């Protein structure tokens, strides 16, 4: 009888092992490097930036490797701090969606603030932006689109592709 109970419990364990788990992969498709293009109401690109985003456990955004390009803007962001949040709305068939909020604030004498509010859906973040600041005429708004930047894949040099795991030449791999 005890063997039957043991076998029964072992058979049910894999079924319930996935229940209630909180996987860290739910934010997997927002974590990574993103590029953004910000346009004003005249559809003129005003700002562009690239950053590496990481969603922390509390929903705040960590950012690294931030670079900002100013096009047709009087605003200055010689150095800046970035912060934000991401609120998960769902994870359906591996696609994360949610609300996105991101703030870039210049540091120094003239403080300018660029704020983005949008939604992640289908692997793209879209929404609206506003900029205000101490720099003369640093004001504006518009729409933005952010897309993930695919990781750079490095291929092996040709001479290494023709070798097996022990480093011996393998004609079958070079054919």
Structural key phrases:
175 residues; Lipocalin; eight-stranded antiparallel beta sheet; elongated; single chain; 49% strand; mainly beta; 3 helices
Count of extended strands: 8
H/E element order:
HEEEEEEEEHH
Strand-pairing-aware structural class = mainly beta
Number of domains: 1
Mean pLDDT: 77
CATH classification, class level? Mainly Beta
Q: Tell me the Rg in angstroms.
A: 24 Å
Distance between the termini: 60 Å
Number of helices: 3
Low-confidence stretches: 4-28
Q: Can you tell me about this structure?
A:
The relative contact order is 0.15. The chain has a single domain, classed as Avidin-like (Lipocalin, Beta Barrel), CATH 2.40.128. The chain has an eight-stranded antiparallel beta sheet with strand order 3-2-1-8-7-6-5-4, with no helix packed on it. β4 and β5 form a beta hairpin. Helices cover 13% and strands 49% of the residues. It is mainly beta and 175 residues long. The longest helix has 15 residues, at 2-16. It has helices at 2-16, 158-161, 171-174, and strands at residues 32-40, 45-55, 61-70, 80-92, 95-106, 112-121, 124-133, 139-148.
Q: Could you write a compact summary of the structure shown?
A:
13% of the residues lie in helices and 49% in strands. The protein is mainly β.
Q: What's the helix and strand layout?
A:
Blueprint: H1 2-16, E1 32-40, E2 45-55, E3 61-70, E4 80-92, E5 95-106, E6 112-121, E7 124-133, E8 139-148, H2 158-161, H3 171-174
Antiparallel strand pairs: 1-2, 1-8, 2-3, 4-5, 5-6, 6-7, 7-8
């Amino acid at each position: 009888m005890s063997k039957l109970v043991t076998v029964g419990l072992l058979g049910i364990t894999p079924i319930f092992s996935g229940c209630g788990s909180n996987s860290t992969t739910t934010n997997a498709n927002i974590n990574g490097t993103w590029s953004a293009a910000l346009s004003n109401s005249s559809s003129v690109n005003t700002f562009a930036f690239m950053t590496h985003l990481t969603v922390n456990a509390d929903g705040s955004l960590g950012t690294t490797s931030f670079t900002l390009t100013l096009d047709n803007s009087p605003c200055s962001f010689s150095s800046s701090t970035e912060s934000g949040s991401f609120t998960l709305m769902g994870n359906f068939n591996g696609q994360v969606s949610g609300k996105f909020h991101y703030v870039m604030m210049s540091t120094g004498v003239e403080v300018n603030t660029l704020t983005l509010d949008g939604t992640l859906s289908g692997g793209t973040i879209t929404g609206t932006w506003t900029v205000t600041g101490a720099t003369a005429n640093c004001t504006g708004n518009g729409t933005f689109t952010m897309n993930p930047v695919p990781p750079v894949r490095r291929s092996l040099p040709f001479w290494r592709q023709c070798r097996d795991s022990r480093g011996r030449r393998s004609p079958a791999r070079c054919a």
